[in-house]
Write a structure and sequence with these properties.
The protein is built from 19 helices and 17 strands. The protein has 492 residues and is an alpha/beta fold. The strands form four sheets. It has a seven-stranded parallel sheet. It has a six-stranded parallel sheet with strand order 8-15-14-11-13-12, sandwiched between helices. The longest helix has 19 residues. It is globular and about 75 Å long.
Length: 492
Amino acid sequence: MLQLRPAQEKSLESLRSGFRDGHKRQILYGPTGFGKTEMAVSLLAATAAKGNRAAMIMDRRVLVEQTSARLDKYGIEHGVLMAGHYRWRPHEKIQICSAQTLEKCETFPDFDLIIIDEAHATRKQVTDFIKNTGTRSVGLTASPFTKGLGSIYENIVCEVTTGSLVDNNFLVPLKVFVAKEIDMTGAKKVAGEWSQSEVTERGIKITGDIVAEWVKKTHEFFDKPEKTIVFCAGVAHGADLQNRFNEAGYNFISISYKDDDEYKQEVIREFSKPDNSIVGLIATDILSRGFDCPDVRIGISARPFTKSFSSHVQQMGRVMRSFSGKDFSLWLDHSGNFLRFRDDWEDLFHNGVSVLDDGKEKPKPEPSDKEKEAAKCPKCSALWPPKSDICSNCGHVRERKNDVQVKAGELVEIGSPARKERYDSAFKESFYQQLLRFGYSKGYKDGWSYHKYITRFGIAPPWKKVMADFISQDVRNFITSQNIKNAHKKRA
């Protein structure tokens, strides 16, 4: 039986409120893993229960099949409007539709509610239909940044953020490593994005580095090969990566638009099995939308974007789904995308989306070599956590140096506060009190906090044993780094 979580119910109520306010076309935003399909199924079933007709439209055969299977799971009768499908039942009140099949029809079927999956990938005929009729429409998306969505949809519903889903264990956090990057210096651009041919050619030059980095990280963190998806720079790059991984003894398979649908579906089915024979899947964009395999633990970004923040978000979402025993996912960034879009990602992660057509899909300025080096830990190349001087992976403490600019006799400090301000007595006392709070929450003896403080500052804590009422991210990062260090020592 389909049961929605409170945040999902709240989102549907906001949608209904929007319809009552006269908004016929609305966007429902939800990060990957929020359960947008479940909410869509609930809307479809509620519409059919009232005697009305409802449809969900998607533009890939595999997504049609997945959604039909989801309805079967909940025992909901429906038809599938897709050429040659065994479930062609146009009389059913609920229809799961292939966008391509609908577009070949002379007229769209009559529906009272239309749900458009992956609404950021706009299709002209579907768009024209929902704009030129009074049909209530809901567009589902995890990245509503496509230019023009504001002219199609009248309202956006956002009741949850990626950060809140991570905090509540519905998604897992990413451990991001800044790896050797594909050099796009001087590359030609087409419509604001780097030329596909140049991206592919330059991506092939670092194939060996990509394979070597993956081998190192999968054994460092998991002691063995773990299920991986690779977003490559192009078809030739994907084939080259497959060969290099296979030569190293790991079964990676590259799929592309050149392969027939049946083959791609079979490969994805095999990869999705818990005891599968495929370690990694490689593709350009096939895996960016609608691909659902929650036990993937490693993502490799090897397709640089200069403006497509939405593609970057979709790719990361493929590895953040929760799964039993999965505490985090590794993100190996060979594209430079994470730094390029970091500010946008931090805003989306914490704040969600409140407006459409917000201009995010514009070319981003390229970080300088100095900025790229400063963004990663010098010991392990992990990305520095926001607002922290402690590497969450290896525990290395960054030494802050004040950058000072001289302007006409005026000193202007750039960057974070000086080390003296950041690590004064009040800071150290608070750090110890937070360690006490964490230790208490885990049932540890006070000696645990005592020794962790010595590890952090090199001296015994002179403070009274008073617990803080919060635990900062800085303290959590330090504890995580120590746990990782201890785990590495045990394996050594």
